[in-house]
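Lab notebook: predicted structure, single chain.

Context: the supervisor wants predicted structures on file for every construct in the current expression panel, including those that have not yet been purified. This is the next one on the list. No modifications to the sequence; it matches the entry in the shared construct table.
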Amino acid sequence: MSLHPKVIDLSLDRMHAILAALGDPQHRLPPVVHVAGTNGKGSTQAMIRAGLEGAGHAVHAYTSPHLARFHERIRVAGNLIAEDDLAAILAECEVANGDEPITYFEITTAAALLAFARSPADFTLLEVGLGGRLDATNVMRPALSVITPVSIDHQQFLGETLEEIAFEKAGIIKPGVPCVVTAQEPDAMDVITRQGARMGAPLLIQNQDWQVWEERGRLVYQDEHGLEDLPMPRLIGAHQVTNAGAALAALRHLRTGDLEAAMTDAHWPARLQRLKSGPLTDAAGPGAEVWLDGGHNAAAGEALAEALTRLPARPLYMICGMLKTKDVRTYLKPFRDVTRELHAISIPGEAATLTAAETEAAASSIGIPARQADSPLDAVRQIAAHHPDARILVCGSLYLAGAVLRENA
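Prediction complete. Output recorded below exactly as produced.
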């Protein structure tokens, strides 16, 4: 961290330098699927991985951020990277970098690529960390690119408008490399299609080249190769139908994968995940439910509120903690008509957290009854004392989700 630049200037120069010192491992990977987007890229990648592994393929996968443990970011041929291997490969990257400035994400991405290059596998799945065009993962020619829904987030790095943000996401499109694109807002789609034309990259666009929809509790996918009638995704919510479609389009293009396994076997923590054990569920009591979600922008709030309506009816109580860099009011607005009360907390151990008082004030300002709590456990106890049949949702930040998962397996 002492080598971390004082200001994060998105650039690929540092990545190319360290990768060259490591022998350019990015050029020795199995076929790469590169996934960018504002929301849904992690879920989409999880479904692609489940489909490939269901067909017997060994799959490398790189995701970020981690929740409970750093090793979650690097799966080598299907398994989380071993502790000894991670330590050794990080040390090797540190030596290769010397005293040159480098970010945390850049050097850990270099470590992941080196680990992947040294282990046999059939495919490599890379999730963009931030943006796309200048993201540390954007250093090789993939076999396929995927762009999930683009919306407003990370404006301090990617731009204030949807068009500016879409331009950064579309930066993963490579000359001649096909790109699966989900349905987008018109301004974002215009940017993506222009970039595809500029790169000579075939775009496989939702509602033009492929369609996906829910029908009678099943997921229906259709493209030029035919129609598939599949189980609904294991991951809950209408937004996961779109993500599932993108995953299926990717698998169809790769001409491999178990499509049913992609729907039924995908697991992605802190995306409307029901907690089964730990201090929070113990405090909630046997009559309550405790759910966890790490979404933190307006689009994620809308998707989460909709997904909750798909669950059997039960009174909803929220426990929310967010970072100062996020717009808490736009995130919370979709919950006005679905939640009984919000318990505002500060994210444990995070200097950039909004205070409980700030989150409480934001919720109250848009009509959500709110109060403060000292911690997630304190909030659950407050709710359980009066509402033993509650559905409790802990939400607002992946940092909060990570803190919860570290204590509640």
